[in-house]
């Protein structure tokens, strides 16, 4: 189910980028009705795209944390694969003391 949701969000993000391009198209700018329609669609897509981009950035940050700095492999796996936290920083996992 998570994979289906991610695929759908990728499609939304793709359409968002497409609409962004249309909003700067001179032909669209010259047509107020068309411009307004794309501007409305852009605003609707942005509500989904921005959180999705933040989620991807968080997942990339978590994935980049070296295993030796993470609390446990299981915790790191859980954070990367289930992404239930609204925001995670590298300070979440403290360095493991050696010795």
Describe the structure concisely for a colleague.
This protein is mainly alpha-helical. It is 71% helix and 0% strand.
Mean pLDDT: 77
- Number of discrete domains: 1
Helices and strands, in order, run as HHHH
- Give the strand tally: 0
Regions with little confidence, pLDDT below 50 for 5+ residues: 84-99
Categorize the overall geometry. elongated
So how many helices? 4
Largest sheet: none
The secondary structure category is: mainly alpha
Percentage of residues in helical conformation: over 70%
Q: Between the first and last Cα atoms, what is the distance in angstroms?
A: 43 Å
Instruction: Tell me what portion of residues adopts beta-strand conformation.
Output: under 5%
Indicate the radius of gyration in whole angstroms: 19 Å
Q: Can you tell me about this structure?
A:
With about 100 residues, the protein is mainly α. It has one domain. The chain has four helices and no strands. The C terminus is likely disordered.
Structural features:
99 residues, mainly alpha
Per-chain topology:
Elements: H1 2-23, H2 26-30, H3 32-64, H4 73-82
Helix pairs in contact: 1-3, 3-4
């Amino acid at each position: 189910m998570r994979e289906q949701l991610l695929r759908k969000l990728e499609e939304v993000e793709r359409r968002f980028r497409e609409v962004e391009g249309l909003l700067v198209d001179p032909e669209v700018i010259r047509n107020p009705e068309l411009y307004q329609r794309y501007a409305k669609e852009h605003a609707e897509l942005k509500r989904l795209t921005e959180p999705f981009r933040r989620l991807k950035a968080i997942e990339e940050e978590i994935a980049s944390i070296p295993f030796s700095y993470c609390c446990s492999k299981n915790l790191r796996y859980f954070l990367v694969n289930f992404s239930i936290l609204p925001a995670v920083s590298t300070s979440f996992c403290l360095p493991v003391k050696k010795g």
